Amino acid sequence: MQPTSSILHAAMLAPTGNDELGEDPTVIALQEYVVYLFQKQSALYIPIGTKGDLCTNLVHCHYNRLAEMILGKHSHINFYEGGGYAIWWSAKQVSEDENAMLDLDEVHDAFHADIDDHYAKTALIYSIDLFREYARHIGWRGFALIIGSLAHRTWEKHGVKVHVNGARIFNHAISQSVPTSKLCSGADSVSICLSKGLGTPMGSVLVGGAEFIRLAKRARKRLGGGMRQSCIMAAMGMYALQHNVDCLAEDHANAQNLARALKNAGFWLLKDGKVDTNVVLFGLPENCKLEKEDLTQALYEGFGVKITGGYSSRGKLFRLVAHMNIDEKEVERATAGIISLCCG
């Protein structure tokens, strides 16, 4: 996805300062705006989401090196972040239901207080992934509240924290017409991604309590250092949050049209073709004219359309993501290319 001219213009005009010393006015403004959106106490700009996840773990699991977290077996941090958390902490992996919600019975079974030397102390319920794109339904808006209640009331004396990986949270806030502050009100901390559909080339933000962010800034330093004039990227993020969030509804409509056309052509679609945001996952139709290993290259070479494959068991699913650089005509071109290659 290419940054728009408006985003690039915002970056060019951004006032500069030293973010590592807390003196960059653009970064400060971005962090304050995210605090407002999520109704938390403080925020921290970071370059990439994976680094933010490690910062989160360093803070919430700082109890000791023997602390552990509870996470979903198919969560992003478990599958797509190089196993970085395993260098520092142990984890209990629990199942998720058809809506990508953590199995609460397994969460209960995975929890351990600091009373038995046989078990690591549970410090964090991590990355609920209530917004994962291949859930059957959009993450139920009450799930973070349930997990939050479990951690903060049932296990209050044990100090268990809840973190939500909200990489695509703005898509789901728009789709559900629910403010992000309500979607994540049960979480102690949230991470957001400024490049997922919003038009910025990089950047994420951690948001949570004041003490969490104070320690997260120290963790950011330990995981590669702070940043100096990061205002250029922060200005892009600020522009995206203020101008591009409402535009996500157009991406949702394009994705829904694409899914509808593929389903009508005989392709298998996750959730029977029901698309809630801007992500479409599909499988090849019966009697397809090419192997699944060949589709991505053939589609790019023949039609200039990039998609990714290898999702789900045995890599049978492909993923299409609509974004602001794609209009209705390009959706039609992508659909026509896929159908032509697979169905003739």
Textual characterization of the structure:
Helix content is 42%, strand content 15%. It is of the alpha/beta class and 344 residues long. Strand 10 (308-311) and strand 11 form a beta hairpin. The longest helix has 17 residues, at 248-264. The model is unreliable at 133-140 (pLDDT under 50).
- pLDDT averaged over residues: 86
Specify the oligomeric state.
single chain
Number of strands: 11
Name the helix and strand elements from N-terminus to C-terminus, one letter apiece.
HHEHEHHEHEHEHHEEHHHEEHEEH
pLDDT below 50 for ≥5 consecutive residues: which ranges? 133-140
Q: How much strand content do the residues show? A: 5-15%
Class computed from helices, strands and strand pairing = alpha/beta
Helix content: 40-55%
Largest sheet: 7 strands, mixed
Physical arrangement of strands within the biggest beta sheet: 1-7-6-5-4-2-3
Amino-to-carboxy terminus distance: 29 Å
Radius of gyration: 21 Å
Number of helices: 14
Envelope shape = globular
